């Protein structure tokens, strides 16, 4: 395997994992009583919270609804499609 292929595979795994974590984070916003420092939930909260904090300062909750996880999910999904999708930049660069 070439380095470019491994990098593409790793980037795809990272972007997919972050998208999945933000989907779980969106579901967690439906349950405000959930403690984010408890064991199973902290595996979702710890990787996503550093990205959510700065965006929450810029965009506070609207009507009590935190939409920042939705925005980050959209960003990671867009990046994955632009870079690794069927017509993505990295996909087109690596095809012979």
TrEMBL record:
Belongs to the YggT family. Pfam families: CCB3_YggT. Keywords: Membrane, Transmembrane, Transmembrane helix. The chain crosses the membrane at residues 12-31, 58-79. PANTHER family: PROTEIN COFACTOR ASSEMBLY OF COMPLEX C SUBUNIT B CCB3, CHLOROPLASTIC-RELATED, YLMG HOMOLOG PROTEIN 2, CHLOROPLASTIC. This is Integral membrane protein. It comes from Neosynechococcus sphagnicola sy1. One of its GO terms (cellular component) is membrane.
């Amino acid at each position: 395997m070439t380095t470019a292929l491994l990098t593409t595979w790793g980037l795809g795994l990272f972007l997919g994992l972050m998208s999945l974590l933000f989907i779980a984070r969106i579901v967690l916003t439906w349950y405000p009583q959930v403690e984010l420092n408890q064991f199973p939930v902290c595996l979702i909260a710890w990787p996503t919270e550093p990205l959510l904090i700065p965006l929450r300062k810029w965009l506070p909750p609207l009507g009590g609804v935190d939409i920042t996880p939705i925005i980050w999910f959209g960003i990671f999904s867009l990046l994955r499609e632009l870079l690794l999708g069927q017509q993505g930049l990295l996909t087109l660069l690596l095809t012979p």
